[in-house]
Every structure is written in C-alpha cells, then in structure tokens.
C-alpha cells in the first residue's frame, strides 16, 4: 500500500483557490453599476440565448462570471429558493441578503469539501430598493465569502483593473445612459491598456429599474433601445412609455 | 455530506438538481407536503361550510378578451364577504377568475401564478397559452379529492394568444376537463343567467368598451336572479372587477372606470329593469 503524500491544508486550499481563480479568469468580465433609477448589468456576451444576467425575483437580479453549467445550476437553485420562500411567506420576505447568504454557504461548502471540485464561478446578487440608499449589491467569490459592494463592481477575468477604472469614474445619481457608457468603456479596455470596440450586438445589458410600474423590476435592454442609449446623449428612460413604443424590445414581464 | 446538507446552510441537493422548469414538480420532490393536492382530508359527514365565490364571466373581442367577476362570497345563505376579489392576473398576457371554495381557489391561483413565473425565469421564455391552460387543468385535477367533499374550485382562464394574435377563453370542470370557449363563457352559481344575457348581447365585432359594458350587464343579470351573486353596491362603492387582456398585456380597470360603466347601466335599468332588449327576429 502506498502512503499518500502529505499536503498541508494551507497548500491544499491555495491550490483549490488557484484552480477556481484560473477558471473564472478565462471568462469575460462583467460589471454591475448603480445608477439613479436602479442597477444596471453590463457584460460582453456573444450569445443571445445563454445569459450572464437573469431575474431571480421581483427586485433581485443575478450576474455570474465563470463556468456556465455551474453558475446556471446556482441560478436555478436561487430561483427555486426565492420562489419557495415567497410562496411560504410573502413576496416581501425574499431578500438579496438571504439569497447571498445561501449562495455563500453553498459555494463555501463546495470549496472546502475534498469530495467536490471547487466551482469556477463568481456571482453578483443585487437588489434594487425603493431609493438608491436601499440598493444592495453583493459579490460572491468562489470560496464562499461575501463582499458588500457599493456603486460599482466587476467580476471575471480582468476584474481588478476594471474595478479600479470604475471606482475612479463612477458617481452616485448617474443616468442610465451615462452608467451604460461608463460600463462599456471599462469593459473595452484590455489588460495591456489598449482599447477595442465592443459592438452593441455583443453586449448583454439588463436593469433592475425601481421606476418600473410592474412588481418585477428586472428588464433586459436590447435592440433599438440599447442602441439609442449607447449613442444618444439623451437619457432615454426605461419606463412603461418606452416599453409600449417598442414591444419587440421586451416581451412579457421582465424576461428575455 | 448529503445527510448533513441542511445544517451547513447550503442549498439542499434538490435545489441544484437540473431538470424540471416546473415549480410544482420541484415542490413535489422537495416538499410534497405543501402542495395542495397532497393533503389528506379526514372523512367528514355532510358538507364543509366555507366561503364560496360565485360568478365569473369572459367575453372576447377583436384584439383581446375581457374577464370579470362579481364581488360576493357566500357561506350557505350568509354573505361571507362583500368585496372579495376573484379575478387575478396569471401573468402578463393571461388572467384567471375563480368560482368555488374561495380559500382553496385563492391558493390555487397563487400557485398557478408562481408556476408560470417560475417557468419564465428558469427557461427564459413564456409558456404558450395552451400550455398555461393545461397546467391549470392539472392543478384542478389534483384538487379532485376535495371537490368530492364539496370543496370544488372551477376557474375560468382567459388570455391573449401572442402567436395567434387573439383573445381566448378556457373553461374547466371539477375533474380538470378543459374546453375552449368561443365568444363568451361564464362559471359559478350565477353563470346560467349571465350566459343567457351574453348570448343575447354578444356580437363578433365588439369594441373593448362595449365588451367591458357587456360583462357588467351579464353580471347584473346574474345578480338579478342568483342570490349568491352580488350586483353593483352603490352605497359601499363596490363594483365588479373587470380586466382586459390585449396585445398590450393585462390591465385591470380602475375603480372609477368600472363604477362609471356600472352606474350608467344602473341608470338605464331604472327605466328598463330587465336591461337592453334583443330584437325578436
């Protein structure tokens, strides 16, 4: 019988963290920013069907970087958690804090369990409040820790550089168009400092808009509305009026 | 690991198991006891007294469908509630109106709404209108044991079919049998009278305003002949709930809008108590 090599727990954890970080770094970055009327999610995503951002509940949105099958699993778990909680108690009792805690516990347990490989994902859970002060953004790295973020957050490959860029330029009360432009600008900077153009078709954009009359505040921004926001200086609102104007920009209530 | 998943606070395995997009399927795996259909009812003598909702009517018009309900709930010969709401949005493009045991029906609607929303969030696409109607059928069928003891729930489902671009109505029986109705439909204790009224007043080319007037006329006639159906309550300002579903989605008429229609009908009925007359030939 061969004796297994001794690996110090410290080394084992460092190896696992390294493994997860590398996996996450392979994915493209995405950013989540607060703006005057809510929270905007922006990322580069060549796929129209495989989303990085989605709705979890009325006021709660989800963003993920890393391995698709792993974060998709966590997303569905989150939707089930939120819907069950809302069904058992009340819709108001589903909070981003509760969901972030469950995600953190899940990621943490998987990360430290020797039987499972660590998830190569980094999540953002955001909840839009009645006012900007009540907005909550939580970042959940692969190891089960929770970071309470304010203003802006970036996850994925180039996250550190993008965060620094955003921290310097993001301010409270930006319009949606301003926040969106800042986000795209931050994503188009490469590691070596050069800038490249990201066409609108490759952008995935979603908002949690507190001014939306519907109970469900999550909405994807696509097509003409996105183009108009990107080019125009005018801060096109995302209210019901623009929904009616462009029915093809949004079908149904807050889904794709 | 598995046995101890709850105490670690992590999501239990059932939450992370890929598979069904149905919330009810998930519940039946994870917590079957909270699904309405899985409840065991002890054998009882006679009928259980519980509030019952009464009349729901629906009318299609070119461009959509109108679903409306009166506001009365009865328990035996007592009025249990004067201002109950029995018409609910199911999602952006459909609505459900309920007749039968109020408590069970409201729970069924809550679960139905959640079922549609859950599917939408997980799949990233909405169910077809037929799919939604079938889902409701399954839920009614799971209530069959209760229905046998007198606690039936019989809803009316109406929605705008985005693919076919028209309003559609589905009616149900206690066993979950589903049938599509063309033009108009009614359910509940006053439905016989409401249907009679609609049969005489319905035309294929109604405008939205005419359709909303028609449903309130029908509810008035139902209340006229059925003691369990409530008419417009002018003193308490309680008027029927009227909802319109069109390509713009679900909209519930404001209290002012429905009271205005109800009042103008009431005024005409002071002259002509039986309401508008259809021609003989």
From TrEMBL, chain A:
Of which family is this protein a member?
A: Belongs to the peptidase T1A family.
Source species: Streptomyces longisporoflavus
What gene is it encoded by? prcA
Q: Does the keyword Lipoprotein apply?
A: no
Q: How does it assemble?
A: The 20S proteasome core is composed of 14 alpha and 14 beta subunits that assemble into four stacked heptameric rings, resulting in a barrel-shaped structure. The two inner rings, each composed of seven catalytic beta subunits, are sandwiched by two outer rings, each composed of seven alpha subunits. The catalytic chamber with the active sites is on the inside of the barrel. Has a gated structure, the ends of the cylinder being occluded by the N-termini of the alpha-subunits. Is capped by the proteasome-associated ATPase, ARC.
Q: Which GO terms describe its cellular component?
A: proteasome complex
Q: What does this protein do?
A: Component of the proteasome core, a large protease complex with broad specificity involved in protein degradation.
Q: Which HAMAP family match?
A: Proteasome_A_B (MF_00289_B)
Show the segment(s) annotated as Disordered.
232-256
On whether Amino-acid biosynthesis is a keyword of this UniProt record, the answer is no
Q: In which pathway does it act?
A: Protein degradation; proteasomal Pup-dependent pathway
Major location, coarse class? cytoplasm
Pfam families assigned: Proteasome
Summarize the activity regulation: The formation of the proteasomal ATPase ARC-20S proteasome complex, likely via the docking of the C-termini of ARC into the intersubunit pockets in the alpha-rings, may trigger opening of the gate for substrate entry. Interconversion between the open-gate and close-gate conformations leads to a dynamic regulation of the 20S proteasome proteolysis activity.
Name of the protein in question: Proteasome subunit alpha
Cleavable signal peptide: none
List keywords of the entry alphabetically.
Cytoplasm, Hydrolase, Proteasome
Name the Gene Ontology molecular function terms of this record: hydrolase activity
Subcellular location(s): the record lists: Cytoplasm
From TrEMBL, chain B:
EC numbers: 3.4.25.1
- Where is the protein localized? Cytoplasm
Q: Which UniProt keywords apply?
A: Autocatalytic cleavage, Cytoplasm, Hydrolase, Protease, Proteasome, Threonine protease, Zymogen
The active site annotation covers 54
Q: Which GO terms describe its molecular function?
A: hydrolase activity
Any keyword tRNA processing?
no
- What's the catalysed reaction? Cleavage of peptide bonds with very broad specificity
Q: Which domain of life is it from?
A: Bacteria
Q: Which residues form the propeptide in this entry?
A: 1-53
The known regulators of its activity are described as: The formation of the proteasomal ATPase ARC-20S proteasome complex, likely via the docking of the C-termini of ARC into the intersubunit pockets in the alpha-rings, may trigger opening of the gate for substrate entry. Interconversion between the open-gate and close-gate conformations leads to a dynamic regulation of the 20S proteasome proteolysis activity.
**Pathway, per record:** Protein degradation; proteasomal Pup-dependent pathway
The answer, when asked if Cytoplasm is one of the entry's keywords, is yes
The GO cellular component terms are:
proteasome complex
Where is this protein chiefly located?
A: cytoplasm
Functional description taken from the UniProt entry? Component of the proteasome core, a large protease complex with broad specificity involved in protein degradation.
The record's subunit annotation is: The 20S proteasome core is composed of 14 alpha and 14 beta subunits that assemble into four stacked heptameric rings, resulting in a barrel-shaped structure. The two inner rings, each composed of seven catalytic beta subunits, are sandwiched by two outer rings, each composed of seven alpha subunits. The catalytic chamber with the active sites is on the inside of the barrel. Has a gated structure, the ends of the cylinder being occluded by the N-termini of the alpha-subunits. Is capped by the proteasome-associated ATPase, ARC.
For this chain, the family text in UniProt reads: Belongs to the peptidase T1B family.
Give the HAMAP family listed for this entry.
Proteasome_B_B
Protein name in UniProt: Proteasome subunit beta
> Which organism does this record belong to?
Streptomyces longisporoflavus
Task: Provide the organism lineage as a comma list.
Answer: Bacteria, Bacillati, Actinomycetota, Actinomycetes, Kitasatosporales
